[in-house]
Amino acid sequence: GIGLWILFHLLIDSSSLGFLMWAYSCSQEHSGHMQEMWRRRVEDYWNMLAPKIRPDTLRNLMDMKANMGSFAAALKDKPVWVMNVVPEDGPNTLKLVYDRGLLGVIHNWCESFSTYPRTYDLLHAWTIISDVERRGCSVEDLLIEMDRIVRPQGFIIIRDKRNIVDYIKKYLTALHWEAVGTADSGPASEEEDMTVLVIQKQLWLTSESVRDSE
């Protein structure tokens, strides 16, 4: 179980304050409080998406920063499949993701993700853009990669710092992305400076396509 797993690593790495803090956050995420928080977050996401989706609109989803898979776990009653991505530069929680019966992979978001273009109906980006910027990697390259792997008329949910979200908004037109809605991230003290931006990728049409549709 999660408690024994964390205890084992505390015993072999008890000198690491960083690990102690991370282990505490993991135990908190696995608590009923954190599960309820993610359930509310997912419910809020779906309410924001509701005007744009039908029951079969969303099937293949990706959580770009899965941590312990709480986003996917909160979707257990919905007919969706979630790829949980554990960032390479953070704690390796992939085994914990597997222990919850979820699928996952480790990835470095400073590089492209190994998948076909237009694979996913929805991407969930929880502070991953801030993380990439902090590492000195290109935010623009990450946005282009996100555009590559989400299908036309698919969705991107960005939960990040306000300045990051404002920065992303500058690229919406160039990427043919439409802002579906924005919302404050919630009352949690650690997210006071964060906001949620829901985006829909538009279907690109050439001039010939436009003429053919008329």
Automatic annotation (TrEMBL):
Topology class, membrane: Single-pass membrane protein; Single-pass type II membrane protein
GO cellular component: endosome; membrane; trans-Golgi network
SUPFAM superfamilies, per database record: S-adenosyl-L-methionine-dependent methyltransferases
Family matches, as InterPro entries: Put_SAM_MeTrfase, SAM-dependent_MTases_sf
E.C. code: 2.1.1.-
Subcellular location field: Endomembrane system; Membrane
GO biological process: methylation
Keywords: Glycoprotein, Methyltransferase, Signal, Signal-anchor, Transferase, Transmembrane
A GO MF term: methyltransferase activity
Keyword Glycoprotein: yes
Signal peptide start and end residues: 1-18
Predominant location category: membrane
Family, similarity comment: Belongs to the methyltransferase superfamily.
PANTHER family assigned: METHYLTRANSFERASE PMT8-RELATED, SAM-DEPENDENT METHYLTRANSFERASE
Protein name: Methyltransferase
Organism: Opuntia streptacantha
Lineage, opening ranks: Eukaryota, Viridiplantae, Streptophyta, Embryophyta, Tracheophyta
